[in-house]
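new request in #modeling-help
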Amino acid sequence: DWTPQSFVEESVDTLKETLGNDKVVLGLSGGVDSSVAAMLLHKAIGKNLYCIFVNNGLLRKDEYTSVLQQYEGMGLNVKGVDASARFLDALASISDPELKRKAIGRTFIEVFDDEAHAIKDVKWLAQGTIYPDVIESVSATGGPSATIKSHHNVGGLPDFMKLKVVEPLKALFKDEVRRVGKSMGMDPNILGRHPFPGPGLAIRILGDITPEKVRILQDVDAIFIENLKSWNLYDKVWQAGAILLPVHSVGVMGDERTYEKCVALRAVESTDGMTADWVNLPYEFLQKTSNQIINKVKGVNRVVYDISSKPPATIEWE
Ligand code: XMP
């Protein structure tokens, strides 16, 4: 019988045997899979696991700092790399969604490769790949491994991809990954996180990306997500986020007319991201959230709620 405990024991034994005294590098995304993979490897080889957590400048508000602290608190040997400026440079004046993804994938590979080179004699690349990633190419989980898979490009493989690969969660489904994490005592806040796309807020800012737009969207998204948590709705939703639209509309503030930005809120129910339904959030929740966003986030004067299901719509807008 499969139990999380027996899985952890057996995996740790196998990993010890396979990896011996070798050094292993792993890219943490803040998501469930890479975090659980890291904990498992940490149990097996401790400080020989070198984790890298890259800030691409497109994470949720304050996530880089808070997630990095969480990882450190878990005892992981983790290096935070704030490459925000490099990513924003690479994205400057790009509006096409696929070009955004390419620019982010390419930059991630450059940053990660530099960091992997800095680890002397590293032998292995660990990835948080799970069973659904193995059987089909569409990954709802995102993060470094998905980025790497979809972006190994023309000029040959980057050096870190020539490393031997270790994927300790390759046989597990998402719910099993969560149970394994729980049995290792990991924080429920990490294990219960919604999926978040590898390109992050870049594909939720329609049109070109500027630091100002990132700031606005982070503020809007933070209000939405915090409210979902405080209304106990977060765990009932599969994925949620805000989208900054390339639309300005007229509003009124005091005696003045305004001409400012519009955001869309999106919350969906799903099992694997392949199909999804919009969530019937309480009107009162939407009312309160919309008021807070418009009152607190400068530059936004209109909020709409996306009531489209997948198919034919997609979860993201880009
Ligand atoms: P769509 O928009 O295709 O999204 O309905 C399905 C799931 O995939 C995520 N998604 C991505 N994840 N890189 C990722 O790592 C991407 O480029 C990407 N595009 C979409 C999306 O957040 C949802 O969970």
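bot summary: Residues 101, 139-140, 142, 146, 195, 197-199, 239, 273, 310, 314-316 surround xanthosine-5'-monophosphate (CB under 6 Å).
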